[in-house]
Amino acid sequence: MLFKNLTSGLIWEVTDPDHIKRCTNDSNYEEVKDNKATGKARITKGKSDKVGE
Questions:
Q1: C-alpha to C-alpha distance for 41 and 14, rounded to whole angstroms
Q2: How far apart are the C-alpha atoms of 31 and 3, rounded to whole Å?
Q3: Hey, where are the domains in the chain?
């Protein structure tokens, strides 16, 4: 799963189930959906953003 840190703007790929749970429950992180066709990530709440920006 991909999560965006709202403070830094960085997008992280998180694979550990406990870490995913922590990010999901932390208001400082926002889940993003990876759009493999374009190489971009789409934020589930808000605007679209490129991975790594």
A1: 14
A2: 4
A3: 2-50
What's the half-sphere exposure (Cβ side, CA atoms, 13 Å) at 31? 11
DSSP for 11-23, please give it: EEE---HHHHHHH
What token pair was written down for 25?
A: 């429950």
First to last CA, the chain: 17
Q: What is the pLDDT of residues 15-38, one digit of tens each?
A: 999 999 999 999 999 999 876 655
For residues 10 and 52, the answer to whether their CB atoms sit within 8 Å is yes
Look at the pTM and tell me if it is higher than 0.70: no
CB 49 within 8 A of CB 32: yes
